[in-house]
Amino acid sequence: MSEKRLVPVIGSLADFESKLAGYLHANTPLALLLDYDGTLVAIADNPANTFFTASMKKLLDQLAVHPKVFLAIISGRGLRDVQSCLGIKGITYAGNHGLEIESGDGTRHDYELPAELQKHYTNIVRELTENLENNGAWVEDKKVSLTFHYRDVPTDTAEQYKGAAKAIIESHGFRANQAHMAIEAKPPVNWNKGEAALLILKNQFGDDWAKKIKVIFAGDDNTDEDAMRLLRDSGTSFRVSTDPNIQTYADFRLARQRVVEDLLTWISNTYNQ
């Protein structure tokens, strides 16, 4: 199995044109799979405060209706939340790290948690809310996964909140993953953004999808690494990070979130020649 490593960095539209010259072709269909927070929009103190730049929204709207481009959003947010944030109809959305998937025609694929896991999840929400939802910390309940946000707690207590949240989550058998000043609780099931990406591609293009299309994935978080790993030999992926020393399964690092707009511009320029 491949390992994480340092990868080349892309910091501008010119970098895409030079380092990936010839990768895309206007006659070859493209599957464009994108994370939301930290990728399409900058990370905000509260998920409700994210917003698109006008130019980013215009690019997404154009690519969403292009006959050669298949657009899917794979987010840690709940499905309805990310749908309402993006506001683009007719595309595929995956919420809760792929536990909820809805295609453009309304077809659903939901990973149903066993009753016992659902009980554990309910207890996690209750304990986090009762014990740690204070001093600016709060629980984002997404019904099958959650995010414990501690960005706004006093700096000198942040590690304490982080450790306590992880202990509660793991005591119920759920996985506690580090995010941006947050801990994500995910059920202990063999399903993630990578598995969701493969299912989406198979449903849209068939079992032999890798022979028919080009694939691009972009994300900024540790949970996106599952998709980068599983797409390593059949697509090109980009990790959004300002950290020059970050180890990743992606093929390239995007130097900052704004470079995602350059990525979409490069794609748009290729398919609208």
From TrEMBL:
Matches recorded under SUPFAM superfamilies: HAD-like (SSF56784)
Matches recorded under InterPro entries: HAD-like_sf, HAD-SF_hydro_IIB, HAD_sf, OTSB-like, Trehalose_PPase
Co-factor requirement: a divalent metal cation
Keyword Transcription in record: no
MF terms in GO: trehalose-phosphatase activity
GO biological processes: trehalose biosynthetic process
Reactions catalysed: alpha,alpha-trehalose 6-phosphate + H2O = alpha,alpha-trehalose + phosphate
Functional note: Removes the phosphate from trehalose 6-phosphate to produce free trehalose.
Protein name: Trehalose 6-phosphate phosphatase
Source species of the chain: Bactrocera minax (Chinese citrus fly)
